Amino acid sequence: MANAGLQLLGFILGTIGWIGSIVTTALPQWKMYTYAGDNIVTAQSIYEGLWMSCVSQSTGQIQCKVFDSLLNLNSTLQATRALMIIGILLGLIAIFVSTMGMKCMKCLEDDEVQKMRMAVIGGVIFLIAGLAILVATAWYGNRIVQEFYDPMTPVNARYEFGQALFTGWAAAALSLLGGFLLCCCCPQKATSYPTPRPYPKPVPSSGKDYV
After folding, report:
1. Model pTM greater than 0.85?
2. What's the helix, strand, coil split of the chain in %, to 5?
């Protein structure tokens, strides 16, 4: 019963992490313009994501421009896009695989060991998906830090962490934790003991031997 609870908890956490990775990929707030060094208060906020850059006015009006050319993007943005898409696809596969291995499902109920293995395989895929998301968000965040502290970067062209990065880190943590819990339900091998050798029964001695 404890294994079933761990399975369910791991599956729920992994699924939430997968949903979070989709939200992270779609959000445009990966990096936000910082006003450090400015002496004036502006009435707009500028932020960029993986697919577009947006300007939000204080009046509530938002204008976004989608990145037109794929080849014109820098290598960090392209790699981050690829890793996030890989993480989402792996998360989807992990959901299908681990669903077949859940104890509450009817799939493979005739083979308990194979059912547990499917849950563990789903957990491993969740771990890989979480690592892909973590690498993507950490790589993008590291690039923001490097550009922020680069003395060659103008003060009016510096950005800081956006909300999507924090969402991505939380999604990666949930995927990793969910995959770890699913992997904890690894089937235990039955311990085989050697067949005991029969000992010869003692022959009852007759009274004639003692004279």
Report:
1. no
2. 55, 10, 35
